[in-house]
Amino acid sequence: MNKEKIISELQFKAVRSSGAGGQNVNKVASKVILTFDLVASQALSEAEKLVLLSKLASRLTSENILLLNCDEDRSQLKNKAIVTKRFLAIITKGIQIPKIRKTTKVPKSVIKKRLKYKKNLSEIKQTRRRPDLE
């Protein structure tokens, strides 16, 4: 995965942010919307695209476009940096394949210890019983 190539494929759109902000909110387009076409990307291999399509299925539109927006800051540049960083984190986490867990064998000493404990407990309970007088 080439980060610079992926960043060059991103499309940004600045729109007016919603919410409180006074007069500034009516003048400045500080909210940034990032769009990334997953299928048309040249920076990702076909295998990476398939993995991302399955993992990010709930975040993609019907045309397989990833949309992210950010209006945390009043600065458009800061919002652009935040949304780009968030996008790269999502992509790198989506591409990572988790390690397959190898099942380990229970050591013989642990099995012996458990059986010894069980035998000891049964002997203790045997001594608590009422004696057989037959």
Largest sheet report = 3 strands, antiparallel
- Give the helix/strand class: alpha+beta
Which percent range describes the beta-strand content? 5-15%
Q: Mean of the pLDDT scores?
A: 89
* Largest sheet, spatial ordering of strands: 1-2-3
Helical run tally? 5
Shape: elongated
Low-confidence parts lasting 5 or more residues at pLDDT below 50? none
The end-to-end distance, rounded to whole angstroms, is 82 Å
Helix content: 40-55%
The radius of gyration computed from the alpha-carbon positions, rounded to a whole number of angstroms, is 30 Å
Please count the beta strands (DSSP E, at least 2 residues each).
3
Helix and strand pattern: HEHEHEHH
Topology:
Elements: H1 3-9, E1 11-15, H2 24-27, E2 31-37, H3 46-55, E3 65-70, H4 76-95, H5 108-128
Antiparallel strand pairs: 1-2, 2-3
Descriptive overview:
With 134 residues, this protein is an alpha+beta fold. Helix content is 46%, strand content 13%. The protein contains five helices and three strands; from the N terminus they run H-E-H-E-H-E-H-H. The chain has helices spanning 3-9, 24-27, 46-55, 76-95, 108-128, and strands spanning 11-15, 31-37, 65-70. The radius of gyration is 30 Å and the shape is elongated. The termini are far apart.
What would you say about this model in short?
The protein is an alpha+beta fold and 134 residues long. The protein is built from 5 helices and 3 strands. The longest helix has 21 residues, at 108-128.
